[in-house]
Write a structure and sequence with these properties.
The protein has helices at 12-22, 57-69, 88-97, 115-124, 138-145, 150-162, 183-191, 207-211, 214-217, 225-238, 265-271, 273-282, 299-314, 328-338, 370-377, 389-392, 411-417, 460-471, 493-499; strands at residues 25-29, 74-78, 102-107, 128-132, 168-175, 197-202, 241-245, 319-323, 343-349, 362-366, 383-386, 401-404, 445-447, 451-452, 457-458, 473-474, 491-492. It is of the alpha/beta class.
Length: 510
């Protein structure tokens, strides 16, 4: 038996979330300092020691203008703690003057306890604030922030902002062993005060959360499932918008609409630009490549990128994926790097010129033209085809074609364009419990389109797009007991977000 998609359309809130993710945002750090000292601080390693507390004004102004020149509509001011910068209001005003249509800040909320500061920031053009408050009382919150009185100040700031007509206020909570048992009470506390949007951030192994407090703060979501579910249930009672940030997808079975949009990985990559650039240009290992990897939300992405960088520098891939526009000299370099046995896989789209003899060893068809696919299949070279509704409408595909189930970058594309999973029976890259062959085309394939032709290095941004579309696959926790779990590619993340984990039916051992 194969799984089926859930009935019904994508939840309207998911469509709103996707639109927000697609909006081009530009993050600008104002300070390397904070007036809290949170036990779990992710940025503690990058905050000021003996260096300057604030980023130089000229650098901030240039970065605000750069984001607008890149086409960003939303400006997000962050830190450290952005609000303690003495020119915070000036930077908000500059953002409005250069043309941002929405200006947001991430804050611990304490400066907003001062009514004069709130009025100045709003008059300058601030539209939204996400306040980081990690408990529903002073004992819990102040114990996590390390500052007595921070809860009372943050609550006063929240109250002031909620009084501003049209101003958007949300609360983010860093989940950890101390506060997850009280998460439902924390959300209820803020719901009663008028908050209806929350961002729940999974603890990650960086900064003080790793170096100083991992034993007291790290938690296993499986052990906390009951508390998480109680909190998630509140969204249906109160029409909440809940975002999850870095919370591992398998722990959201039956709550798949809460799985974080995979494009948020771009924010993670941008936040560690230097680390990724050093890897792709010099092959420098990540400083965090150690025992914490299994607990990090970037583990899959980083592992895949390290593998591709290793292949590009030393060879190793069995296939190289190219398209019709690949420069001849770059393809020649790839053949030299990967050796004479590498197979060239040409990605053929509708409208591309006919593949020349000898230009490729294998063909990957991405399109809807049934007649073209049949011509490609008769050409004599192995052909892979991404399934589409158009291709399947004409009946069975030619027997010489290896079927690939389509993958998509966005949830809305799955709803609009994907054939049902049942139509993918026999697809090469689906789990065997869904009738597939349980293998991945990408396991040994290097996409040459990720290489910047001028620099001869892998572009981390384009790699992240490739990872989201082709490599970001997940299993249910139930799959741990599957007899064919080893080597199984899992289900693409956006198909899980649409169809749910319940389509996966682990094969019983023995």
């Amino acid at each position: 038996m194969t799984g089926e998609y859930r009935a019904g359309a994508v939840d309207p809130k998911a469509a709103v979330k996707e639109a927000a993710v697609k909006q081009l945002r530009h993050w600008v750090r104002l300070t390397r300092a904070c007036n809290n000292r949170c036990l779990f601080c992710l940025d503690s390693d990058s905050l000021a020691g003996s260096g300057p507390l604030a980023v130089p004004d000229a650098e901030i102004e240039a970065e605000i203008r750069r984001g607008r020149a890149l086409g960003a509509d939303r400006l997000i001011l962050s830190g450290g703690e952005a609000s303690i910068h003495p020119r915070f209001v000036d930077f908000v005003r500059l953002g409005r003057e250069v043309g941002y249509t929405w200006i947001q800040t991430i804050s611990n909320g304490r400066m907003y306890a001062y009514g004069k500061f709130v009025r100045a920031a709003v008059q300058a053009g601030l539209n939204e604030a996400t306040l980081s408050i990690h408990g529903h009382d002073a004992e819990l919150h102040d114990g996590l922030t390390g500052i007595p009185g921070s809860f009372d100040q943050a609550l006063a700031g929240l109250t002031n902002l909620l009084r501003v007509p049209g101003f958007v206020v949300s609360v983010d909570v860093v989940l950890n062993r101390r506060n997850v048992p009280h998460l439902a009470e924390i959300l209820s506390f803020f719901i009663a005060r008028g908050v209806h949007e929350f961002d729940l951030l999974h603890l990650v192994p960086f900064g003080r959360a790793w170096s100083e407090h991992r034993r007291e703060l790290a938690y296993d979501p499986r052990e906390m499932r009951e508390h998480l579910q109680r909190a998630f249930a509140l969204r249906r009672q109160h029409d909440l918008v809940i975002w999850t940030n870095r919370l591992p997808a398998p722990h959201l079975e039956d709550e798949e609409d809460l799985i974080q949009d995979p494009h948020k990985l771009h924010d993670e990559v941008r936040g560690r630009t230097g680390m990724f650039e050093a890897l792709v240009t010099e092959g420098t290992p990540f400083c965090c490549h150690d025992e914490r990897c299994g607990q990090c939300p970037l583990d899959g992405l980083c592992s895949a990128l390290r593998r591709l960088v290793g292949w590009w520098r030393e060879g190793g891939a069995a296939r190289v994926l190219v398209d019709a526009g690949t420069p001849v000299h770059l393809l020649a370099e790839a053949r030299a790097r990967f050796g004479p046995d590498v197979r060239v896989l040409l990605d053929v789209h509708d409208g591309d010129p006919w593949p020349a003899p000898g230009a490729a060893d294998e063909l990957l068809y991405t399109g809807d033209d049934r007649a073209l696919l049949e011509r490609l299949a008769a050409d004599g070279r192995p052909v892979f085809a991404r399934l589409s509704r158009g291709l399947l409408a004409g009946g069975p595909l030619p027997g010489r074609v290896t079927r690939l189930f389509p993958t998509f970058e966005y949830l809305s594309e799955v709803e609009a364009a994907s054939p049902p999973l049942a139509d993918g029976v026999g697809a090469f890259d689906l789990p065997r419990c869904l009738g597939g062959e349980g293998r991945s085309l990408w396991a040994d394939t290097f996409p040459l389109g990720l290489v910047e032709a001028g620099r001869r290095v892998i572009d981390p941004v384009r790699f992240t797009d490739h990872y989201v579309r082709n490599l970001y696959r997940v299993h249910s926790l139930r799959c741990d007991d599957c007899a064919v779990r080893e080597g199984c590619p899992g289900l693409p993340i956006n198909h899980v977000r649409y169809a749910g984990f319940r389509v996966l039916l682990p094969i019983t051992k023995g």
